[in-house]
Amino acid sequence: MWSARSRFLIVLLLSTAFTVDLLFNILPKLHQRSIRSQCPCEESPNRSAVPRSSSANGSGAPAESGRWSLDPTLSKLRKLFSHPFYRGQSLPRRPGDQLLEKEDAVKYCHYKAKRANKKRARTGELTGTRYSSKVYLASNWLKFHLAIDRYALYPRSDPFLDRLLEDLAVLDVSEAVVKPSGVHLKLLLKFQNFGKAMFKPMKQTREEETPEDVFYFVDSQRHNAEIAAFHLDRILDFRRVPPVAGRKLNLSKEIQDLTRNEDLKATFFISPENNVCLFARCLYSCKTEYAVCGRPHLLEGSVSAFLPDLYIAQRELIKNPWSRSYTFANKEEWEINPNYCEKVKHTPPYNKGSRLLNVIDMAIFDFLTGNMDRHHFEVFTKFGKDGYIIHFDNARGFGKHSHDELSILAPLTQCCRIKKSTLLRLDILSQPDYRLSDIMRESLLHDALSPVLTEPHLLALDRRLQAILKAVQKCLQQHKDADVIKDDVGDEFDFIDFNSSVLAR
Ligand SMILES: Nc1ncnc2c1ncn2[C@@H]1O[C@H](COP(=O)(O)OP(=O)(O)OP(=O)(O)O)[C@@H](O)[C@H]1O
Ligand SMILES: [Mn+2]
C-alpha cells in the first residue's frame, strides 16, 4: 500500500526528527548532567552554607544556580583557596596569640546566664532560653570566638565557619532587642545556643543604585552590602569582617510574638499596604522615627555574628585619619593637603609597625565596595598597635556600580605603600583564571539571599581592582620598590609566577 518512495520519505522524516532531537535536546541535557556531576556546588548539599531555594531569593527571581552549573570549568573559588599563596603563610599560634582562653569564655557565659536567670525569675520579663553549659560548649559561636587570634577573625578553612553561617541563617531566635543606632534600625538577635548577632534590614533593593545627588552620609544602609563585604573580605584573605549571612526574618513570629519587652512590642504597626512594620527612634542625623516593613511578614536582612563581649575582649575605637567631613561644606585636611600622609607617617602609632599598612588595606577594601563611611575603626586591645583592624559596618558599600570613588584610595595614593601579601593577592585576583567578579559571584551563591549583588556591581569589582593596581604602578614609577611594597611575606613565595603587569615591570 506504501510505495517505496513514500516509505523512503517517512524514514527520512523520522531520522531528521531524531537528529534534531539528538542535537538540540538529548545532547545538551547529557552535557549539563555531566557538568553538574563535576560542579562543586552540588557535590554535597552541606557544603553550601544554606540550602538554597528560589523562595529564599530576595529579588523574587529564581536563584541563579543555572549560570554556574553551566560553567564547564572547575570552581574558581576552590582553585583560589587551594592556591599555594592561600594555603601557605599560616603562622604558628604561640601562647597569647589567641584572643580568648576557653576557660574565661565559659566562665563569663556562665556568670551572664546566672544573672539572666535570676532576672527572669524576678521579673518574668526575659524570654531567652535557660542557660545550658552543654549547649554553649557545643555552639559554633564558642568555636568562632575561640578561633579568633592575632592574625584574623577566623581561620582559612575550618568546618565551623560554614556551620556558623548556617546558624545565622536558620537558627531560632530566642530574643530580639532594638539597638540604639544612628539613623538605621537594627536588631540584636539572641539565639538558643547563646549566640548573638546583629540584624540589619533591607532598606534598598539590590537593583537600586544610589542617586547622584545623595551624600554618602545620608546614603541608605544596604543589607546586601554587609553580606557581600564578608565574602569579599574572605576572598581577599583579610578575614577581618565578622561572619555574615543573609536571612528572611518573620517579623510577626520571630520578633513580635516572641518578645515580652513591652517597649519593643509597642513599636509594631500595620502599614496601609497591610504589611507588618516596626519603628525605632534614631539618635542623631534625623528628626523622627523610622520604620521597616515585612512583605507582609517576611523581611530580609543581613545577620552578623557577634564578636565576644567587650568585657572579655576589649576593643579600642579609633578615628580614621582619612575620615570624611559629615557636613556639606567642610573638607578634611587629607582632601586638600597632598602631603597629608607625611604627617600621618610621623604620628604614633602610624610611624612604625603595621597600623598604617592596615589602614591602607582597609582603604583598598573600601574602594572595592565603594564605602565612603569609614569614620572610625576598631581593633582588639589585646593585640596592640600592630593588630588587624576589624572591618565592621560595610552597609554603605555597593551603592553605585557605575562610579569608582578614587578618593577612598587616598591612603594608598598619598602614602604609596602596600603590604606585599595584599598586592600578591590582588594580583592573583586580577588574572583571568581567578577573576575577582567570578569568584565573588560563585561565593555569593552560597548565601540564602542569592543573588546578593547584581552583575554590574560584580563587574565593577574587576574595574576597581585594575584601578588599585594602576595606583600601585604609579607609586612604583615615583618611588623605590622597597619603599612602596612592604615585604611581610619574605621570599617563601618567590617560586610563584605572579605574571602581573605591576610586579613584572
Ligand atoms: N558582629 C558584631 N560583633 C560585635 N559588635 C558589633 C558587630 N557588628 C556591629 N557591632 C558593634 O556595633 C557598632 C555599630 O554597628 P554598625 O556600625 O554596623 O551599625 P550602624 O547602624 O552603622 O550604627 P552606628 O550608627 O552606631 O554606627 C559597631 O561599631 C560595633 O562596635
Ligand atoms: Mn556604623
From TrEMBL:
UniProt subcellular location? Golgi apparatus
Tell me, in one coarse class, where this protein mainly resides: Golgi
| Key words, A-Z | ATP-binding, Disulfide bond, Glycoprotein, Golgi apparatus, Manganese, Metal-binding, Nucleotide-binding
Tell me which InterPro entries the record gives: FAM20, FAM20_C
Q: Which residues form the active site?
A: 373
Name the Gene Ontology biological process terms.
enamel mineralization
**Where in this protein does the record put region Disordered?**
37-67
This protein is called FAM20 C-terminal domain-containing protein
